[in-house]
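Internal ticket #5521
Category: modeling
Description: The requester needs a full-assembly model to guide mutagenesis choices. All entity lines are attached below as received. Residue total reported by intake: 227.
Assigned to: D.W.
Attached entities:
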Amino acid sequence: KAGVTQTPRYLIKTRGQQVTLSCSPISGHRSVSWYQQTPGQGLQFLFEYFSETQRNKGNFPGRFSGRQFSNSRSEMNVSTLELGDSALYLCASQGGFSNNYGYTFGSGTRLTVV
Amino acid sequence: DAKTTQPTSMDCAEGRAANLPCNHSTISGNEYVYWYRQIHSQGPQYIIHGLKNNETNEMASLIITEDRKSSTLILPHATLRDTAVYYCIVIAAGGTSYGKLTFGQGTILTVHP
């Protein structure tokens, strides 16, 4: 069974640009959530999507957005990049009751803003 | 979701058991205790979870106190590859977390040769 796939693995962007990250969940998982991890703040929740609907949102500015497609794949977008957006971005998929509500994480996308 | 408290760091000798404690004194009856670990620059990896009873799998054992206010993750024979940050989190049954997991700072486990 394939795991959670995140692309790209590494990304370097310039301040002011925008970026789109992709996450393919485990087959059959309909919930995808996103996290930002920085050395200072640790793992912070961005948002969660289920069946193409955002169900939950963390405390991040509107520059951070996401969406989910009918095949459960999800993308997150960050516009007008700032240096502080440099982080490891992780997505996780959840399989519901059959998985005892546990979450499976991808390997992440390392974003560097210069 | 209930908050968890873990020691900042722990050391363990290779081949010995590593016992990582976690306090979750405000856990609710429908919340599971999950343990994940994260090796540098990778995503958190699931280790084990439990509700009330002690659990064991090929990676570790989980001991949950009778009042469910604390738990201990046991790595029976730690190896150098077990050096990682270990997170104890609680997840509500029924999917009501809606993706939002509260990660603390975790415990940095260092396994020494």
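Resolution: model delivered.
Comment from assignee: The beta strands of chain B are 9-13, 18-23, 31-38, 45-50, 55-56, 61-64, 70-75, 84-92, 107-112.
Ticket closed.
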